[in-house]
Amino acid sequence: MTECTLFRNDFVIITGGPGAGKTTLLKEMQRQGYPYVPEVAREIIQAEMTSNGDALPWRNAIKYRDIMLEKSIESYHAAQSNDPGRLLFFDRGIPDTLAYSYLIDAPASEELESAARNYRYNKQVFILPPWEEIYQTDRERVQDFEEAQATYEIMYETYQWLEYELMVVPKLPVEQRAEFVLKHTRSGLTGVDPKNGNRK
User: Fold this and answer.
1) What residues contact residue 126 under an 8 Å CB cut-off, 6+ apart?
2) Which residues of 64-73 are buried (b: 16+ CB within 10 A; e: fewer)?
3) Alpha-carbon distance 160 to 154, whole Å?
4) Chain center to CA of 124
5) What distance in Å separates the CA atoms of residue 144 and residue 135, rounded to the nearest whole number?
6) Could you tell me which residue ranges the NadR/Ttd14 AAA domain spans (predicted)?
């Protein structure tokens, strides 16, 4: 693997397969005062379904992947004004798009691999494991639980390949999950209050 751009400590990814509780966790953390960047995948699916477009995982997965990369890069650039002393959480990161490409068995473009290597986040990534008891499908999430498990495994391997360190978030009530993430993230920003950027 080629040399990567430096990790950005204030950009913290929370990822995992579909239906593992990511968005619920991030909303709880937002309630506690920690902002997050929403996942682009659902936004794309909703827009395409509204406009009767074909950039959908079940219609044109390659087109969907390419738009996902474009929107994820846009989200990353928009977040760069964030104070580096304050944590900003991401509901998935650019490497998720690379993992998705592997999942659909599509060759990853040079642009995609380059983006995954060069748009960097905190080296520590929080990943939520498949959790069948809470798993639900809906209008935008059509994968069955088996597909959710496969997604998790590919994401784990992809982030490892990109030299991130994975921390599995335990299957706990959402408040305890938020406590776990915040406890383990604080250790990466020594001397800085991750909520407001002030020195302790």
Assistant:
1) 12, 13, 14, 15, 167, 169, 181, 184, 185
2) bbbbbbebbb
3) 10
4) 12
5) 9
6) 12-177
Residue type at 177?
Answer: R
Tokens at residue 71, please?
A: 């929107």
CB within 8 Å of 60: residues ≥ 6 apart:
54
Q: Is residue 197 part of a domain?
A: no
Q: Number of C-alpha atoms within 13 angstroms, CB side, residue 188?
A: 23
Instruction: Write the pLDDT tens digit of every residue in 147-178.
Output: 888 889 999 999 999 999 999 999 999 999 99
What is the mean predicted confidence (pLDDT) over 139-144? 59
CA pair distance 73, 94, nearest whole angstrom: 7
Q: Residue 53 phi/psi, 5° resolution?
A: -80, 170
- Pairing, β 124-128 against β 165-168: parallel
Residue 105 burial by CB count (10 A; 0-12/13-18/19+): exposed, middle or buried? exposed
Residue whose token pair is 């639980």: 145
| Distance separating alpha carbons of residues 97 and 108, to the nearest angstrom | 9
Is 97 among the domain residues?
Answer: yes
- The domain of 134 spans 11-187
The count of domains in the chain is: 1
pLDDT in tens, 45-60: 888 888 988 888 788 8
User: Band of the pLDDT at 187, cuts 50, 70, 90?
Assistant: low
Task: State pTM to two decimals.
Answer: 0.84
